[in-house]
Amino acid sequence: MGGVVGTPIIWSWDSARQTESGETNALPLGTVNHCDCLHAAGLIANRDELRRDLGLPTSISDIDLILRLYDRFEVAAAGRIAGCVSFVVHDRERGRLLAVADRSGRSRLYYLRKRDLVVLAPEIKALLPFLDSLRTLDRLSIAAHVCRKPISLDATYYEGVRAVEPGTMLVADHLGLRLVSYWRLEPQPLLKLKSDDAYAEALQDLLSGVIGQYLDTESFGITLSGGLDSTAVAAVLRRLAPKARIVAFRWVAPDLPEADESGLSVAVARGLDLEDVALDAGSCWTLSAPDGIQTSESSPFYNCYTEMWQEMFTAAARRGIRVLFTGLSGDHLFGGNIYAYPDLLLTGRWWELVRQLQEHLPHSKMGLRGILSCMVLRPILRQAFFRQLPRRSRPVSWLGRRLREVYSDPLRELSIPRWMLPGRAQRFLALLDPALPQANEEINRMAGLYGIDVRSPLLDHRLIEFATRLPTEQTFRAAVRKVILRNAMRNYLPETVVQRRTKIYPDTICFRGLRERETAKVWALLTDMRAAELGYVHQDKLREVYRSFVAGEHNDTRFWNSLTLEAWLRRWF
Question: Is the pLDDT of residue 506 over 70?
Fold first, then answer.
């Protein structure tokens, strides 16, 4: 479902209705009683449950369901919806505009205040005509971009244009304009089960329940790697829909063996009886598109693997696939460099800690001293002294003068209780990672250009809340990550996938473009830089960093964001 993306929604307090002379406004997508739905996008995962609770027929549309929920519960309606839906409702009787952003960041909403107006749109570019003729860029967001850090979830790259944060609703009425959180990740009580099998069964039940609610078609695709996240989603989908046409889109790179995981992914595709589509990653290297970096007007963000995503979306659209599942956020839920050892030490389970360290040592190059320093003491000290010793990460060396003036990236204040163990605290912070909703939004924006709806059920808030309740041993044990997910998938995936310890990274595909085949495009962007003229980057330092990268002296690709910024400035400013 969705509204007209290019048409902004304009709210005037003077008239308590959306109107402004000479401006085009959004037309209602649906009307129930005194309420109009002006925008809706995404998927209501629990629609059947909501429909039954309200006594509504199965034929009711999602638009009408949203309006019925609002008519019944008003602003509390947002918290009753599971899934990834954002919507805007105009309540004519109460003189209220309600704009709800989904919890996962899939369907964002943006707004600006202009005199007595608030203007809303699902895309930033629809709001730009309402800015002054001289569009001022937000230097703090630009600085974060150059340093390859996510910008604040309520910020954009334009001064005056703000984002409604995921899990938040904007309310405009006689009380003014306010932002209200209807869902925020909070520390959860520890889940205490008797055995690994019990934890695995709990995850199996939750995965089946959540993923099943995202499944409303008998023909769909899945992005399939050789890792656990996407393969777990594929396994659950096949179990829930044994007769469905499931197309697996997987990457092969025979000429780049260090980036090739086709052996494992093809085994999963065959074992689950998926329609197999192999895509050549080696031919989709970074900057391989003839036009180079083609940023949108809204943002300088441009993924260095855009060519790969475009190839996948093209292949999916060619085969009639309109719904594509991913395993996005599996690492945040169950993986990452989050260790159980500090939690074992602080809870007095010392013999178990010794046993796991003994099992870990043969698989590590760090040695016992390195493991104790990095995986035991450091997380404990970080937790204990975080508030007393705030640290700032250093900006990149080529950050320009005008951005250094505003650059600030302090570690986030721990919004968790002191009693929380270090491992669980790190998991909690990982799930708050602002890069996750921003990546989700960007993937869906690109997919929309091909008429494809990307669904990432592992971003569902019920799975996120479940992950915060897990003991750290269920996600890390004796050098093995994602313990609970491995146990849950043991009877559904090949043992080679379940037991796999290593992970394939596509870095060499990026290096092929930036270091070998597209250096001319990079040097062109690093010459007479508009970003340098504006004081955003130091051109000579940036050129030196790239020169040393091409020479193989380092593999740091943070300079990529400066290239996308330069391409953005040249194209739109």
Answer: yes
CA-to-CA separations, 528 to 287, 518, 537, 549, in angstroms, rounded: 20, 18, 12, 20
Q: How far apart are CA 316 and CA 277, in angstroms?
A: 9
289-298 pLDDT, tens per residue?
999 999 999 9
Q: Strand, coil or helix: what is 365?
A: coil
CATH number of 196-334+434-499: 3.40.50.620
* Domain 9-181 class, CATH top level: alpha beta
Q: Can you give the pLDDT at residue 446?
A: 94
- Which region holds residue 160: left if phi is over 0, alpha if psi is between -120 and 50, else beta? left
Q: Residue 392: pLDDT band by 50, 70, 90 thresholds?
A: low
DSSP code per residue over 246-291: EEEEEEE-TT-GGG--HHHHHHHHHHTTPEEEEEEGGGS-TT-STT
Cβ neighbours of residue 88 under 8 Å, at least 6 residues apart?
3, 9, 26, 37, 38, 39, 40, 97, 98, 99, 100, 109, 120
Q: What pLDDT, on the 0 to 100 scale, is given for residue 1?
A: 62
Domain boundary assignment for the chain: 9-181, 196-334+434-499, 341-391+407-430, 518-572
